[in-house]
Amino acid sequence: MHIRADLHIHSTYSDGRGNPREIIQASIERGLNAIAITDHNTFAGSIKAIKINKNPDFIVIPGTEVRSEHGDILLYCEKEIDFPRKIDLLLEKGHRENCLVVPAHPFDVLRLGIGDLIYQYSDWDAIEIWNASANKGANYKAIEAARLLNKPGLANSDAHILEEIGIAYTILEVDDLTVESVLEAIKKSRVKPVFKSTSFKIRVGRAMWSVERFLKEFIK
Fold first, then answer.
1. I need a labelling partner for 25 at 20 to 30 A (CA). Which of 5, 11, 59, 185 fits?
2. Average pLDDT over residues 156-169
3. Alpha helices in 150-178 (DSSP H)
């Protein structure tokens, strides 16, 4: 069967505005069947969402966005794991734990992509080739990297506010709606990324959230 998945979303467990319950509700309303809440350097948001979710037609993949030594990398696993920050060790540990290791927005400098370092490693499981919040030039370079490295490409929203969820997503061909089946579909390139960029109105909303979050931290 085919499902819609947005596998790069942030919650209140890092720098997102929505909590896991709100994210699940918004994702279902947008017609998604699978998400990964990928908070920075923690699985906490996704683990909370898994406990909350009671919908049999919807699944949450355990995930995190690791701030590695050279930039951001998405990690999708069957369960929460400890993870190193060095890329080679992250790849080694991730694969040992049956996780997928995926460079996030690799050529978006403002979002701390790893850039041309992507070509120094041959064992990525996939590449985020379309990030709805990244500039199109960076996304096109990611598409080319996936082609040259012969890796499956994912499209994600990188949502930090609820309105961004599902703007870009990936259609996956899965055997059933389980974490194992979703990860297997990506490994076997049974993916079809759907490209769409964040609208100006939503970009303004995200910018306002960034300012609000900065002021909250400043007041502390």
1. 185
2. 97
3. none
Is-contact 84 97, C-beta < 8 A? no
- Three-class SS of residue 147? helix
Given a contact cutoff of 8 angstroms between Cβ atoms, the answer to whether 131 and 168 are in contact is yes
Torsion region of 75: left, alpha or beta (phi above 0 gives left; psi -120 to 50 gives alpha): beta
What confidence category does residue 137 fall into, taking pLDDT thresholds of 50, 70 and 90?
very high
Give strand pairing partners of 40.
65
The reported pLDDT for the residue numbered 198 is 84
Task: State which amino acid sits at residue 208.
Answer: M
In angstroms, the Cα distances linking 99 to 10, 51, 92, 126 are 19, 20, 10, 11
Strand order in the sheet with 59-68: 100-103, 71-76, 59-68, 34-37, 2-9, 169-173, 191-194
Does the model's pTM come out above 0.85?
Answer: yes
Q: List b or e across 53-70, with b for residues whose CB sees 16 or more CB atoms inside 10 angstroms.
A: beeeebbbbbbbbbebeb
Instruction: Give 218 or 37, the one with higher predicted confidence.
Output: 37
pLDDT at 209: 85
Residue 5 dihedral angles phi and psi, to the nearest 5°: -130, 135
